[in-house]
Each structure stands twice: as C-alpha cells, then as structure tokens.
Specification:
about 45% helix; single chain; binds nicotinamide-adenine-dinucleotide; 12 strands; alpha/beta; about 425 residues
Amino acid sequence: MAEIQTAHQVALEQLRTTAERLNLEPGIHEMLKQPKRSLIVSIAIQTDDDNLRVFTGCRVQHNDARGPFKGGIRYHPNVTLAEVTALAMWMTWKCAIADIPYGGAKGGVCCNPKKLSTSELQRLTRRYTTLLLDFIGPYRDVPAPDVYTDAQTMAWIMDTYSQFKGYSVPECVTGKPLSIGGSEGRAEATSRGVVLCAKEAAKLLGIQFRGAQVAVQGYGNVGSNAAKIAHEMGCNIVAVSDSKGGIYCPKGLNPDKVEEHKTNAGSVTDLEACDNITNEELLEIECDILIPAALESQITKANAGQVKAKLIVEGANGPVTPDADQILHGNNVFLIPDILANSGGVTASYFEWVQNLTREHWTLEEVNQRLEHKIVRAFNDVSRISGEEATDMRTAALILGVGRVSEAMKTRGLWPQ
Ligand code: NAD
C-alpha cells in the first residue's frame, strides 16, 4: 500500500469504517462510495493573444438525498477528478453534520489562475458555466467559491446563468458580492465557526477561553479572520504564519496590526517585537489551541508527536493526516475535524441561498446569531456521539453525517427500481 494516501483513498476508508460502525446496508454503502453524477467538460477559451486554449474541468455531484447538491469550485493546476470526488463526498457529510438541507458536490478546473488575466478568467468561468448549465441551478446544484475562486467568480456564474434564464437568479450560487445578493457575514463565517467550535471545546476541556494561547497556521481568509475573531473574544494570539514563515510573540499579537504589516511587507514575518519562526516550529509551539488554516497534510506522523496544543481546530480541509490523527488521539490532543470545524462557511452559504429565495436581506447580527446557533448545535451533536460511542470527534462526526444521509436515502427509497 502506498505510504501517502490520496484524499480519495482517505475518504473511501473513512466511509468504510463508518459504514461498519453504523452497520450500514451494503447497498447503501455501495451507493455512497460513488458520486451520483460526475461530469467532465472541455472548456475552450480565446486567450488575450488571440489563441485558443482548452482546459479540463469537472463537476462531481456526490449525493442529494437531503437537498440540492452544494459545493465549491476550485481553479488549480493539481485538480483531479479523484480529488474533486473526495471533496464532494466530504461536502455531503459536512452539510449533514451542520444539518442544512443540502447534499454534497465539488467542481474544479485544471488551470493556473495566477497565469491567466482577469478577462481570460472571466471567459473561462462563463464557458464552464454554460457547460454545466443543465446540471446546476437553485434547486439542483448550488456552487460556491473554493481555492482560487472568489466572489467575482460567483458573480460571473450568476450573470451567465441569469442571461440564459432571461431574469436574475441570484440563488444559483453563493459567496456572491453583497451588491448582487451576497450575505452579510459570509466572508468571515468559516472563521467564526472555527472559533465558536474552539470555544465550545474549551468549555469541555476546562481551558479558560479568555486568555487562551492560540497559534494560527495560514494568514489568508480563514486564518486571519480566525485570529481576529479569537482576539475579539479575548484569546491571546501567540503565533501566526503564512507561506513565507511565521512569527511568535508570547505576550500576544494584535491581528489587525499583523494584517497591516502583511499588506505592506507581503508576509507576516519580520514584525516588530516578534521572533521569526518556521512553519514547522509554529505547529509545535507552546499553546492551548492550534488552528491549522492553510493547506492539507500539515500535521503528519513525522510531527504529530511534537504538537503541544491541547486542542486542534481544523480550519483548513485535511490538515491532519490519518496517521497523525491516531498519534494525537493517543496523546490526548482534542481534535475538531474539518467537516465540523469549518462548516460555518457552508452554513452561511445556506443563509445566503435562503435570503435570495425569499428576496430578503438579513443584518450581520441576525446572520451571526443564526450561525452560532447552528454551529454550537452541530458541535454538541458530535460531542454527544463521541461520548456515547467512546470515540474521537472525527469518527463521531462521520457517524452523524453518514448516518443522516443514509437515513434520508432509506426514507426516500429507490425509484425507478
Ligand atoms: P487563502 O488562500 O485565503 O489562505 C491560505 C493561507 O495559507 C495564505 O496565507 C498562505 O500564505 C498560507 N500558506 C500557504 N502555504 C503555507 C504553508 N506551507 N505554511 C503556512 N501557511 C501557508 O485560503 P483560505 O480560503 O483561507 O483557505 C484555507 C483552507 O481553508 C483551505 O484548506 C480551504 O479549503 C479551507 N476552507 C476555506 C473556506 C473558506 O470559506 N475560505 C471554507 C472551508 C474550508
């Protein structure tokens, strides 16, 4: 067996062990192993220098037993159908754990967006949308941003879809700019959910949340907002990092100052009165709460034993490998898995969709209040199962997610048979 498991192998193995625990009917397990539909498309665009280029894209729709498919679209050179399939499966569990009426999907285009101009990206996005036109829509499949796609990308999808329909359909995507039906609070919702999960776990573990020492890996959307929200809630942010390295300041950092410095200097490193550290050192720093919010596979069997945090909250997708999971569990490190910890983003997406469908616009306070209610309930549901089944939080989250989806499939039945 290969040393490093691919995301798809990990997803299938998680499903297998969860199906065993749930005593799932073999037929339901078989259906869940594979997406309901996978679409591969060739996206031809005119480049700025008047040539034709063709990119390969896909949309994987894993399961829609609980509601329309839902999931991000990523633009990345390493996008593969297998990876997107795993991400679509995780979206199915994530939406079920958050208890929002969606299934799971994911899309991707194999390209290097950093090497495409804005107008090329616009043409790519619009052409990709036309190729998916019969398979997406407010009641079918609702895309959202993911790696290297953003609110502007969603605006182009919304406009293309609406042009074909002949009227505005803001509810066909989420993560849109506010001016065309985006939701207040959507941009920070993933991070707010991460910090709220950390707060709930701190209560369980007897960690004083106000004053808790927090380290954050990655200072992008999820990491920087998580640092800011944790700071607002009274935590002491002792270390942060980005792709160029990290900084450590045991007395505590001001996340707004770090952001300002990063904007001016291009990195969080070299901030006054802080020690520069490497990304490896950040993961092993003395702290109460560690939030990996950068990339996948950051805590592996090579460094899991050196983690000193009592609590890890997975802001990123898949930052802890399965081998590392076992080591951390053995060392009594409490881990809140990505499918629960970063579900605040899709929950706020659901709020955006509801607001669009009802032509309403909620205040930031209303969005944040509803988000807190949903995420705290999801945390408590998973924590209860973890206690009942005497298992870790990741296994408990999978039991909840796979259990809810299979229940919906059995209730709906199979037609045509
Ligand atoms: P982003 O691109 O805004 O930020 C990523 C950050 O990680 C950047 O600061 C980058 O410099 C840093 N980074 C890159 N390589 C690093 C390394 N080796 N060590 C330390 N830092 C490094 O991305 P994002 O939207 O914040 O997403 C981060 C993660 O969270 C991804 O795994 C994403 O799938 C996941 N996620 C994001 C959302 C969301 O709403 N944005 C929702 C759910 C999950």
